[in-house]
Automatic annotation (TrEMBL):
Span list, region Domain III: 174-223
Locations listed in the record: Cytoplasm
Gene that encodes it: ruvA
UniProt cross-references to SMART domains, sorted A to Z: HhH1 (SM00278)
Record text on subunit structure and interactions: Homotetramer. Forms an RuvA(8)-RuvB(12)-Holliday junction (HJ) complex. HJ DNA is sandwiched between 2 RuvA tetramers; dsDNA enters through RuvA and exits via RuvB. An RuvB hexamer assembles on each DNA strand where it exits the tetramer. Each RuvB hexamer is contacted by two RuvA subunits (via domain III) on 2 adjacent RuvB subunits; this complex drives branch migration. In the full resolvosome a probable DNA-RuvA(4)-RuvB(12)-RuvC(2) complex forms which resolves the HJ.
A single GO molecular function term of this UniProt record: hydrolase activity
Keywords, ordered alphabetically: Cytoplasm, DNA damage, DNA recombination, DNA repair, DNA-binding, Hydrolase
Family: Belongs to the RuvA family.
Domain statement: Has three domains with a flexible linker between the domains II and III and assumes an 'L' shape. Domain III is highly mobile and contacts RuvB.
Name of the featured protein: Holliday junction branch migration complex subunit RuvA
Native source organism of the sequence: Halodurantibacterium flavum
Length: 223
C-alpha cells in the first residue's frame, strides 16, 4: 500500500498531478480544492495517498491531510459512492464541510456535489452520521502532508515538522476542541457534533471558547 508520496510536482492535469520521486513518476488523482492549493510545477510537494485496486486498473488518490483521506475512505464505503464520487463531495464541501453536513444531517449539502443524487446523499448522511464526531476530533491531531522545498531538484524534500497548535485554535481545530469539551460534559457524540457543526457554520472564525458557548446555547432545553 502506498500511503504517502513526497517528491517534485512535474505537471498538473485537470483532475490529477504527476509527482516525480527519484526518477519515478506517480500519477495521483486529487480534488479540485487540493489542485487549487498546490504550487507550480517544479516545487516540492507531499500528499497522503489511497491506492484503489481493480482487476484492470490501479489508481492513486491524493490528499493534503489524513482527515481528508479518512473521509474519502469512509465515503467510498457507502453503497453507490465510488472513488470519483467521493472526490466530488470533497471538492464541493472540503473535509470540514463534509463533517459539518453529515453531523447536521444536511443531505442537500452533500447533494450539491456533481453526480450525487438525493438518494445517495441521504444514504451518506444516514450511514456516516455516527462517524462524524470522531473525525471532527481527528482534526486537532491529524498532520498535513506538507514539505519544505530544499531548492535542490535532485534531492527529496525534507518533511516539515508539525507546528505547535495556537492557543486560539481556528476551525476545524476549534470545532474538535469544542466537541471534546461537550462530550466531557456528558453530551452524546451525536448531539455534541450536531451542535458544534451548527455553531461553527454560523461563526466560521470563532475560537474554541466561543464555539463551546454557542453550542451549549443550542443544546440548552427549549421552553
Amino acid at each position: 500500500m502506498i500511503g504517502r508520496i513526497a517528491g517534485r510536482l512535474e505537471y498538473r492535469g485537470s483532475d490529477h498531478v504527476l509527482i516525480d520521486v527519484r526518477g519515478v513518476g506517480y500519477i495521483v488523482h486529487v480534488s479540485d480544492r487540493t489542485l487549487a492549493q498546490l504550487p507550480a510545477p517544479g516545487a516540492a510537494i507531499a500528499l497522503y495517498t489511497e491506492l484503489l485496486v481493480r482487476e484492470d486498473l490501479l489508481q492513486l488518490f491524493g490528499f493534503p491531510t489524513l482527515l481528508e483521506k479518512e473521509w474519502h475512505r469512509l465515503l467510498m464505503g457507502v453503497q453507490g459512492v465510488g472513488a470519483k464520487a467521493a472526490m466530488a463531495i470533497l471538492s464541493t464541501l472540503g473535509a470540514d464541510g463534509v463533517g459539518r453536513a453529515i453531523a447536521l444531517g444536511d443531505w442537500n449539502a452533500v447533494r450539491a456535489a456533481p453526480g450525487i443524487g438525493p438518494k445517495i446523499a441521504q444514504r451518506v448522511v444516514l450511514e456516516l452520521k455516527n462517524k462524524a464526531p470522531g473525525l471532527m476530533a481527528m482534526a486537532v491531531t491529524a498532520p498535513a502532508a506538507a514539505v519544505i522545498d530544499t531548492g535542490d531538484a535532485g534531492d527529496l524534500p525534507e518533511v516539515a515538522a508539525p507546528a505547535a497548535p495556537p492557543q486560539n485554535l481556528p476551525a476545524p481545530a476549534a470545532s474538535a476542541e469544542a466537541l471534546s469539551a461537550l462530550i466531557n460534559l456528558g453530551y452524546s457524540h451525536g448531539d455534541a457534533a450536531s451542535a458544534v457543526a451548527q455553531a461553527s457554520g454560523s461563526e466560521p472564525e470563532a475560537g474554541t471558547p466561543a464555539l463551546i458557548r454557542a453550542a451549549l446555547r443550542l443544546l440548552a432545553p427549549k421552553g
